[in-house]
Amino acid sequence: MNLDNNNDWLIDDSSSAQGTPPPLRPWKVLIVDDEKDVHTATRLAIQDLRYKERPLTLLNAYSAQQGFELVREHPDIALILLDVVMETDNAGLKLVHRIREELGNSLARIVLRTGQPGQAPEQDVILNYDINDYKTKTELTVQKLFTVVIASLRAYENLVAIEKNRQGLGKILEGAGDLYQLRSLKEFASGVLKQISAILDVGTDGVLCMENTPTSAGRPKLEVLAATGEFEVLLGGAPLATFPQLQQAINDALAEKRTIYRHPYDVLYITAQNGREFVVHFEPPWPLEDVERNLLEVFCQRISSAYDNLYLYSQLVSAQEATVVALADLAEFRDSDTGEHVLRVQRLSDAIARELQSMGVYPEQLTPQFMEMIGMASILHDVGKVGTPDHILFKPGKLDPEERVIMEQHATIGANILRKASLLVEGTSYLSLGADIAGGHHEYFDGSGYPRRLAGQDIPLAARIVAIVDVFDALLHKRPYKEPWTLGDTMSYINSRCGTQFDPLVIEALDRLVREKRIPIRLPEQ
Fold it and tell me: Which residue intervals make up region (Disordered) (predicted)?
């Protein structure tokens, strides 16, 4: 449609960028009418119309049912030009009700066009049906049709912006909350890509990279943390130069320290309080609208805060792990065998916990936090030996009854030391779990162990796991008071004490690992 300059205000006064601009998402307009001539005339009148540089895509339906199917198939239809009288005298009015009620589509602008206004009085229709305009076909000249279309598209655009803001902010709040729950950088990166896809309501290919500091030994300057779609090859070792234009956009964002919208190479720039910089690239099918850019800017702030939270959490975990290692080193300092022993106990405790989880037992106790901590906490099982005299700790033969009493005190000593320290940390920690293990790994399942003669489920699960692991490793390896046993003899001994010394389910988990040769430690040569 050729328009004179007096109508320019109806379109968009923004100038396009130099060069060939990227294609913009078209406005979808649905024509529902049982007269082919009406379709032809409408198409001729508006097919070349553009609003905000975006063209129209015209969809055609020749009955109310066809119109319903198209609206269901295309929920992003902006405008419906709808005839009233088609299959029945009120087919168009019924379609309005189905669109609003059955499909829940309140955004599409609906303009009724009728050649028989007497059958659908305007006042009644406006009051009783959720339509946005009512026109007789005779009054819809080319100019009037143009005005109706532009006004409808502008109203639709505003409604969509409000709805996108409402839904987008909701998704940001929900997504940021999810990010705060993640406990690893890889999970965090994948979560960011998923949330961006949700905010834009499209399935996007994307990649998230982190710029490492010069002090990050052994790590690339620009590290790919997560990638989806065509960019997954970057996780397999392909260089970023595989995508030269994307590499340039990422380099520009990092150099200029700002977000770059250069469709299809949009790059979000995010910085964290510890100085780390991130870039996120994604590929929506169309250039982003202002409302989408604004939502992503808000989300970037949430990403930064969530990463800061993750960083502080990781620092806290590292501090706890350092404390655990330092305490374990105290025992290693006095016992040259303890170092390798505790590492084997750590790996095997982790493996048995995973096996118990795969067996579907103890679901309430095998929480994600337990699974994360059991291995590291297990290395504290004998920390109480710091209080055992050397002449007893290193005695090459069996201990006499008095010496045995002194040796057994290490369980209580270790539990007390760790329990007291754990009170400084709220909730479950390596120290509190370590206290359970130190104080309970010499308890027997039948209640005949020490130091408290606990039985069955009263013995903490972590202690029941380490009880078997400790004996398993001790029997397999040389000690000052014994030669190493064979794997067969070791398993025979452990199985013979099923239900008396050891938890039968934990024995089953160990037995499965041994039978299937999934023991995560190097067994001594027999």
Answer: 1-22
